[in-house]
Amino acid sequence: MIKKLHDAGLRSEHAYTAAVASIGLSFLAWLGSVKGESAGTDRADRWGIFVGEWAPTFFGLGLALAKYEDG
């Protein structure tokens, strides 16, 4: 799978950038839910956690791609 992603043009830097961006997006999702919905902080927390779970996935993908790139 990593070889196919690498062959498609995905590099470790892309995955690391996506991981950092997802951390910021997690905060924005939480903030947007707190401010924009009347459901309260419980729902906002779930949004933030949902998006926040993407970061470790992207970091792991970045590590796998970096290892593949190093040969």
Note down, in words, how this protein is organized.
The chain crosses the membrane at residues 15-34, 46-66. Keywords: Membrane, Transmembrane, Transmembrane helix. The protein is mainly alpha-helical and 71 residues long. It has one domain (12-70). It is built from 4 helices and no strands. The protein starts with a helix and ends with a helix. The mean pLDDT is 89.
> Helix coverage percent of residues?
over 70%
Oligomer: single chain
Summarize the main sheet: none
C-alpha Rg (nearest Å): 15 Å
Q: How confident is the prediction overall: mean pLDDT?
A: 89
Which consecutive residue ranges, at least 5 long each, have pLDDT under 50?
none
Please give the number of β-strands.
Answer: 0
Number of domains: 1
User: N-to-C terminal Cα separation, in Å?
Assistant: 15 Å
Structural classification: mainly alpha
What keywords describe this structure?
71 residues; mainly alpha; 85% helix; 0% strand; membrane; transmembrane helix; transmembrane
Describe the protein's topology:
Elements: H1 2-7, H2 12-36, H3 41-52, H4 54-70
Provide a quick synopsis of the model:
85% of the residues lie in helices and 0% in strands. It is an all-alpha fold and 71 residues long.
